[in-house]
Structure formats: structure tokens, C-alpha cells
Write a structure and sequence with these properties.
By secondary structure, the protein is of the alpha/beta class. It has a single domain (36-332), classed as Rossmann fold (3-Layer(aba) Sandwich), CATH 3.40.50. The chain contains 13 helices and eight strands. It has helices at residues 2-29, 31-46, 88-91, 121-134, 149-160, 183-193, 207-217, 226-236, 240-250, 258-262, 285-292, 308-311, 313-338, and strands at 49-55, 58-65, 74-77, 100-103, 142-147, 165-171, 270-275, 297-301. Strands 1-2-4-3-5-6-7-8 form an eight-stranded mixed β-sheet, with helices on both faces. Helix 5 (149-160) links the parallel strand 5 (142-147) and strand 6 (165-171). Helix 1 (2-29) packs across helix 2, helix 4 (121-134) crosses helix 5 (149-160) and helix 7 crosses helix 8 (226-236). It is globular, with a radius of gyration of 22 Å. The termini are far apart.
Length: 339
């Protein structure tokens, strides 16, 4: 009997040891694969499904949850060199019945990338409109959320296609003329002086550069193990030439201030969320938007940097949801007054 118990214990320990050893091997040898599995598992846990939308030979990759209902659908546009899974930490705190779509921006992750594609802000706006029409999202006005580069695209989208939207949230948007400079602005100045021979801070190619980028983008200091930093770099390196191309496009004269140049055309009810300690695009941009767009709601977050969704996911989700509900209630009340 004692021998049987001993054998059962040995089998149990062996069964447990296999997944543990596999995890350790993945962590040490293939951290990039572990990161991909992590995103896959998180999407599954949150009930998000990955889909593709084809239009004229162009393929959009996006994740979605829920179906169109009483509340407006929400379309989320991520920042430069990111992907649809950027929103997972925030999606966790949004009601599961809401219809959410997180699309990979043009050329990013699973969305088509071509050598002749226009990755300027205006070019990306046209592609996002193509996506919206392909999935029939604009059958009913929807809420648009854009972060950083995605915020620049979202703002110009609102100026060009106002009837598509019922409301909009811009999170630390790029594309403005900011009254104050940031650490990133100083780095860009040095980069221009070097004629772009220095590495671009937002395009890391080593674990050390990845750590520097995380410090630049986040006020909250996350302790990231060296192996995870290596995995994050390994995932990005095959795309760095593409990121460089996009970066040069969005920093070019036709795109750098695209949002600012379209402010006078924005009539969509607007919410702005910004981290007070943003070192990439200065929080003074919130004042620029508030002055230019009547009725603009501004929410500034204490002890928060540029990576608002990663640093304050729960707070950001609540702010966005509250804004959608309050605007919808106000629109409904105004509608009743007319009758």
C-alpha cells in the first residue's frame, strides 16, 4: 500500500513537472512565443474573437466582443507600433454586453502591409473609413476611441466623417501644436541634428532600449524581467523597418500637426483623457483641444504618463463609459424635448 501511494505521488509530481519545465523553457529560450500565448489567452478569457475583413484585396485584422445594441458600438484605434491587444487591460473593465472592436491599424500586426501604402495620417484615416464601411459599423453612429497616433487619426476621422460618430474619446493624442515641450521633443531635436543616425526612442532594438522606451512612456515604474524585455524586442525587431517608415510619415509636415489643422472641423462631442506626467506628448495639448472644441470634456490623470491604458486601465474604462452614457442621456433628453 505504501508503495502504491509512493508511485501515485511520483506520477503526480511528474505530471506537474512537465508543464512547469515547459513554461521555464519558454520563458528562458522563447520569451516572444510566451508573450504571444499570453495575449491569446487574455483575449480568450475576456471573450474577444479575432476576425478578418476583406475589401478590394486589402485585409483588416480586428478583435471584437458583443453585438450592436442600445449603447453605441465602440471602435478603438491603437498607438504607433502597437496592436489591437493594447486595449486588453482596459477592455477587462468594460461591460461584456457592449459591442467593442479593436482594429490593427494599417500595416500593423494582422492588417495588410504593402510597400506602396500611404501611412500618413490622412492615408490611415481613409483606410479606417474603409474598415468601418466593410464591417458596416456606420449603420448607426458609433463611439471612436484613439490613443496617441490613433488619437491623431481619430480626430481627423471625426473632422472628415462626422455623421459616422455619436461621440469620441482622444487619449494623449498626437498631432497637435503643444504649448510645452516634453522629454521626447528634446530627443527628437537631437535626432534631427544627427540627421536620424541616432536610434528612434520609440523603435527599440535591444532590451536596454526597450526598457528606456517603457520609462519614457510610463510614469508608473513596472518591473519587467530581462527575459520579458528580450521577448518584447524579439517580437518587434522583424517589424522595425516598417515602424521606421511609418514614423517618418507621421512626423512629416503633412501629418505631424494633422489633428491641429482639422480642429475647426470637429463637431463630434469630445472627451480628452491625458496623463499629467506624459513625457511623449505634453498634457498642455488638453487645453488646446478644450479651447478649440466647444463642450469638450477633459479628464487629467494624476501620476500617469503616456501609456494611460496600461497605467490606469480601470479608471480609463470608467471615464469612457461614463462619457458615453452621459452623452447618450443628454441626446435622448434633447430628442424628447423636440416632441
Amino acid at each position: 500500500m505504501d508503495l502504491d501511494v509512493l508511485n501515485l505521488f511520483a506520477i503526480a509530481m511528474g505530471t506537474l513537472a512537465v508543464p512547469i519545465l515547459l513554461f521555464m523553457a519558454s520563458f528562458m529560450l522563447w520569451p516572444s512565443s510566451l508573450i504571444k500565448v499570453y495575449y491569446w489567452y487574455w483575449r480568450r478569457t475576456l471573450g474577444l474573437q479575432v476576425c478578418y475583413a476583406e475589401c478590394g484585396g486589402y485585409r483588416f485584422c480586428y478583435s471584437y466582443r458583443g453585438k450592436p445594441g442600445f449603447r453605441p458600438s465602440i471602435l478603438m484605434l491603437h498607438d504607433f507600433s502597437a496592436h489591437k491587444d493594447t486595449w486588453l487591460s482596459m477592455v477587462k473593465y468594460l461591460p461584456k454586453h457592449l459591442h467593442l472592436l479593436c482594429v490593427d491599424m494599417p500595416g500593423h500586426e494582422g492588417t495588410t502591409r504593402t510597400n506602396v501604402e500611404d501611412y500618413s495620417i490622412q492615408g490611415q484615416v481613409k483606410r479606417i473609413r474603409q474598415f468601418v464601411e466593410t464591417v458596416h459599423l456606420n449603420r448607426k453612429p458609433f463611439h471612436l476611441v484613439g490613443m496617441s497616433m490613433g488619437g491623431n487619426v481619430a480626430g481627423v476621422y471625426a473632422a472628415c466623417y462626422p455623421s459616422d460618430l455619436c461621440s469620441m474619446t482622444l487619449i494623449c493624442p498626437a498631432g497637435l501644436r503643444y504649448p510645452c515641450k516634453t522629454k521626447f521633443d528634446d530627443q527628437m531635436h537631437e535626432l534631427e541634428i544627427s540627421e536620424y543616425t541616432l536610434s528612434i526612442p520609440l523603435i527599440p532594438s535591444t532590451p536596454e532600449e526597450m526598457e528606456d522606451m517603457l520609462k519614457l512612456c510610463s510614469h508608473v515604474r513596472f518591473r519587467v524581467p530581462q527575459q520579458i524585455l528580450q521577448g518584447l524586442v524579439d517580437v518587434r525587431i522583424p517589424h522595425n523597418d516598417f515602424y521606421h517608415e511609418v514614423f517618418m510619415e507621421i512626423m512629416g509636415e503633412n501629418s505631424k500637426y494633422a489633428l491641429h489643422e482639422h480642429l475647426h472641423l470637429i463637431t463630434t462631442p469630445l472627451q480628452v483623457i491625458w496623463g499629467k506626467q506624459d513625457q511623449v506628448v505634453d498634457v498642455s495639448g488638453a487645453g488646446v483641444l478644450a479651447e478649440a472644441v466647444p463642450g469638450c470634456r477633459v479628464d487629467l490623470l494624476e501620476n500617469c504618463g503616456h501609456s494611460v491604458v496600461m497605467e490606469r486601465p480601470k479608471r480609463t474604462a470608467k471615464l469612457v463609459l461614463d462619457f458615453i452614457i452621459s452623452h447618450q442621456s443628454a441626446a435622448s433628453a434633447n430628442s424628447k424635448k423636440k416632441f
